Automatic annotation (TrEMBL):
Annotated localization: Golgi apparatus membrane; Golgi apparatus, Golgi stack membrane
Protein name: NAD-dependent dehydratase
Pfam families referenced in this protein's UniProt entry, alphabetically: Epimerase (PF01370)
GO MF annotation terms: NAD+ binding; UDP-glucuronate decarboxylase activity
Chief place of localization: Golgi
Signal peptide boundaries: none
Domain NAD-dependent epimerase/dehydratase: 3-245
Length: 317
């Protein structure tokens, strides 16, 4: 198949490109490198069936581009208010890639009668009042707070996708991705796990925003890629919205302690009052639908995943 992966030079996108190439597909990565990196796609460049297009997907791709399936992953994704690569630091780019960018890619999919997968986010649930979150929950999201540039634009990306499914019978689906971690996360985008690991390895304080009682569930990258591939290609997935994420839930403080232990770090764990506005207090997906529809659940054990990630950080950071 001819497959486009937008955001293919990013963390999840680069692993997905590699997997699709290994499966024998012809893969075109479309990326503007705003938060992605050339290093991420070094392995992909070894495949003859890999093409890179440097392009901002807010603008339409060439009309004559032939494609059978589009994975739309392009978007800044880090919530850390101290990172220059976060969606908070790139508000306009984030809103546009998820709205205008999604529209352009849906149009391309329609023109080619291609399959389409939107990488949405657990952030569409906001600071949830239901726990765990299932796909029918409509969320608790501020339309105007600082995080809304991401949360609301992902929600609108879903609206666009749902419209194309209804109006144009497009073969599209929506993945609501929950926190994912693994090799190739950038230190500079300062997401929780990479930050804790680098702080622990460098012997600096492991800094927790707030009291550390907020919970997160972390999915290892290999599991996420498997989930995305199954959601795109399994039968009966047209029009479906599916949570993808791990169900093992821990507090942020527990993650800090686990990382400290695995790295044998002497770093102190410190707390900062600087809790970002609208930071979700609880996060755990209900994945019944993914199990039923895709026969999928995250299989990589947390300790193994963290150990692999820590090894990667030791070699590469
Ligand atoms: N990693 C997670 O935990 C997580 C959780 C929920 C949702 N997601 C979603 O998954 C997708 C991938 O996330 P990630 O963690 O790999 O992030 P990432 O920042 O590593 O990758 C995003 C990629 O998109 C590219 N990009 C951004 N704007 C673009 C534009 N206008 N045109 C072309 N390319 C553009 C970036 O350069 C980067 O390579 C995102 O849509 C994100 O919202 C990720």
């Amino acid at each position: 198949m001819k497959i486009i992966v937008t955001g293919g030079a990013g963390f999840i996108g680069s692993h997905l490109c590699e997997r699709l190439l290994e499966d024998g597909h012809q893969v075109t990565c479309v990326d503007n490198f705003s938060t992605g990196s050339e290093l991420n796609i070094l392995e992909c460049q070894n495949f003859k069936k890999f093409t890179l297009i440097r392009h901002d997907v807010v603008k339409a791709l060439p009309k004559n581009l032939k494609v059978d399936a589009i994975f739309h992953l392009a978007s800044p994704a880090s919530p850390n208010h101290h990172s220059k690569l976060s969606y908070l630091a790139m508000p306009m780019e984030t809103m546009l890639v998820n709205t205008q960018g999604t529209l352009e890619l849906l149009k391309l999919a329609k023109q080619n009668r291609a399959k389409f997968l939107l990488a949405s986010s657990s952030e569409v649930y906001g600071d949830p009042k239901e726990h765990p979150q299932n796909e029918n929950y409509n969320g608790n999201v501020s339309t105007t707070g600082p995080r809304s540039v991401y949360d609301e634009s992902k929600r609108f990306a879903e609206t666009f996708t749902a419209y194309f499914i209804r109006k144009h019978t497009l073969d599209a689906r929506i993945a609501r991705i929950f926190n994912t971690y693994g090799p190739r996360m950038l230190k500079a985008d300062m997401r929780m796990i990479i930050t804790f690991i680098t702080q622990a390895l460098e012997g600096k304080s492991i800094t927790i925003f707030g009291n550390g009682k907020q919970t997160r569930s972390l999915c290892y990258i290999d599991d996420m890629v498997e989930g995305l591939v199954r959601l795109m290609f399994s039968p009966r997935t047209k029009g479906q919205i599916v949570n993808l994420g791990a169900t093992e839930e821990h507090t942020v403080l527990e993650y800090a302690r686990m990382i400290k232990k695995i790295t044998y770090s002497q770093s102190p764990i410190t707390f900062s009052e600087d809790l970002p506005e609208d930071d979700p207090k609880k996060r755990r997906p209900d994945i019944k639908k993914a199990k039923q529809l895709l026969d999928w659940e995250a299989g990589v054990n947390l300790k193994d995943g963290l150990s692999k990630m820590i090894e990667y950080c030791k070699q590469n950071l």
